[in-house]
Write a structure and sequence with these properties.
By secondary structure, this protein is mainly α. The chain has 2 domains: 36-120 and 184-282, no CATH class; 139-179, no CATH class. Helix content is 66%, strand content 4%. It has 12 helices and 4 strands, in the order αααααααβββαβαααα. Strands 2-3-1-4 form a 4-stranded antiparallel beta sheet. β2 (153-154) and β3 (161-163) form a beta hairpin. α5 runs antiparallel to α11 (226-255) and α9 (186-202) runs parallel beside α12. The protein is elongated.
Length: 287
């Protein structure tokens, strides 16, 4: 039986995947997933420039919308919760060396969490994203001196109180505004950092064929083991969370920050997980 056009295309993809793994230590699926964030950025530009005003300025560009407040602002917490559940009910039960698997999982989580902290929370003072903002001329502005820290100095020309030593978080708490400077998108960083981290953790445990098979068993009431059902729910929830992060990244790309600020957030989002998962492969070592 002669190979069909589909067989030929499948062989081409297999060869491409093998070459990528050999020469660049990365799989075709990983390239596609990581590249999807660049596609996200491109789609957001089409939406922004091609949609009428009523489409651009709607529910999702309001920072107080439910998804932003309940999920995005607590993004690393949700990522942490889902990876704990995934390790507890999927990875550990399927591991042949549970102590080692758990130890490596904890190490990877601590490293990527530390990178999240450095970029968004604290880096020997202001976090990296705020250091970039301040070093490029940015300040936190307040219209009043009431309840403001001593680090604020009043501009005698505008009578506005300014400080370059408070974080973006505390600036918001003081009901101030970032002004001037380059403000790397923390939302873009978080969505990409979380998504790639989750994907690289689960890629060896979930395939499309596996999910379809499990869902068919569930539909036919053949999936009766409670652990199997819990595993399936967690697997779908993990994929769902990655999908939510991708969607909210699109909303951020459409509505907020300049193009360069979003690209910087994207670069930092790539850097941390690449350092943990991709770079060690070049030394025949992975954690």
């Amino acid at each position: 039986m002669e190979p069909t056009i589909y067989d030929e295309h499948h062989m081409i993809l297999q060869n491409l995947n093998a070459k990528l793994k050999t020469f660049y230590r990365i799989s075709l699926a990983e390239v596609i997933f990581i590249s999807s964030f660049l596609l996200n950025f491109f789609i957001s530009r089409l939406i922004h420039f091609g949609s009428p005003i009523e489409e651009i300025y709607n529910y999702y560009n309001q920072k107080g919308n439910f998804i932003n407040q309940f999920f995005v602002k607590k993004g690393w917490g949700w990522t942490t919760l889902i990876i704990i559940l995934f390790y507890t009910f999927v990875i550990i039960p399927k591991s042949n060396n549970k102590p080692k698997t758990l130890a490596l999982g904890v190490i990877k989580y601590l490293v990527v969490t530390f990178w999240w902290i450095l970029f968004t929370q604290w880096c020997f003072g202001l976090p990296i994203m705020d250091k970039i903002f301040v070093y490029t001329g940015g300040v936190c502005q307040l219209d009043t001196s009431v309840n403001q820290p001593h680090t604020f100095i009043q501009d005698l020309e505008t009578l506005v109180w300014k400080s370059s030593s408070v974080s973006s978080y505390h600036c918001r708490k003081l009901k101030g505004n970032w002004s001037g400077g380059h403000d790397p998108s923390g939302h873009v960083f978080l969505m990409i950092h979380s998504s790639i981290y989750l994907y690289l953790e689960i890629e060896n445990y979930i395939t499309w064929n596996y999910l379809v098979h499990e869902l068919k068993l569930l539909k036919n009431k053949q999936l009766k083991n409670p652990l199997d059902i819990v595993q399936l729910v967690i697997e779908i929830s993990t994929i769902g969370l990655i999908g939510l992060w991708w969607f909210m990244l699109l909303m951020t790309n459409v509505y907020f920050h300049s193009i360069l600020e979003k690209l910087v957030g994207l670069g930092f989002g790539y850097f941390g997980v690449a350092l943990v998962y991709i770079l060690p492969r070049w030394f025949n070592f992975s954690i």
